[in-house]
Design goal:
Elements lengths: L3 E4 L3 H16 L4 E3 L6 E5 L3 H11 L9 E2 L6 H4 E2 L3 H10 L4 E7 L13 E5 L4 H10 L2 E5 L11 H8 L5 E4 L10 E4 L6 E4 L5 H7 L12
Parallel strand pairs: 1-9, 2-9, 4-7, 6-10
Antiparallel strand pairs: 2-3, 3-8, 4-8, 5-6, 6-7, 10-11
Helix pairs in contact: 1-5
Length: 220
């Protein structure tokens, strides 16, 4: 399979690209899309075979499950349970944006993202095109568009070079505005823990929680 690449410069091109991406996702295929951090490779989060293809394309095992991107902050309650108040504060301040929250997942969800140990990593991207796609497709399992061990793609050329044979559709949205991966916080406990340092600093996160009685810790 060789990917079809779609420009998104005009409203007409954008609509064509979103339609092609949505159809590919419905068919269980992989797509590459721009986000506010880096380019991502995406699959229907509720299609276990598509998620398996995503992990294989990246050269990953089930021990590295992908996060899930959503189009609206309220979707967190459809995917997660027991979301603590401090996590909701972080959502209010930093979503949409470069913050991924690892939460207790809804046990009723019919999906298989890998060995998640009962958790789900959720993020709402600060990228209009990405959110327009998510509004059409629903939650997508998304990982950075690169093969494991290589730097994440920050434009469509890099993504195509690494994953062009594995995906059906590549949306070209120009260079990534962020270029740095999201910060990942585990919010399954009484206080948040940094799992991956990224675009948001510990200082920014804790400033948002000032007066809440809790802080985020970085044990790295």
């Amino acid at each position: 399979m060789t990917a079809e690449r779609y420009p998104t410069d005009t409203a007409e091109q954008r609509e064509t690209a979103i339609g092609a991406a949505s159809l590919a996702v419905q068919r269980g295929q992989l797509i590459v899309l721009p986000t506010d951090t880096v380019y991502g490779v995406a699959a229907d989060a509720f299609d276990p075979a598509a998620v398996k293809s995503l992990l294989q394309a990246k050269g990953r095992g089930r021990d590295m499950p992908p996060p899930v991107l959503v189009s609206a902050a309220t979707t967190i309650d459809a995917l997660a349970v027991r979301v603590p108040e401090y996590a909701r504060t972080l959502v209010e301040v930093f979503w949409p944006g470069a913050l991924t929250l690892v939460c207790h997942q809804q046990s009723s969800l019919q999906w298989d993202l890998g060995d998640t140990r009962g958790t789900v990593a959720v993020r709402m991207p600060d990228h209009e095109l990405a959110r327009e796609i998510l509004e059409r497709t629903g939650p997508l399992a998304v990982s950075s568009a690169n093969t494991t061990g290589s730097p994440a793609a920050t434009d469509a050329d890099e993504a195509e070079r690494m994953l062009g044979e594995e995906v059906a559709v590549i949306l070209d949205g120009g260079a990534s505005p962020g270029g740095e991966a999201s910060t990942i916080i585990d919010v399954t406990g009484e206080r948040g823990r940094v799992l991956r340092r990224g675009a948001l600093s510990l200082e920014e996160l804790n400033a948002a929680l000032e007066g809440s009685g809790t802080t985020i810790v970085d044990e790295g």
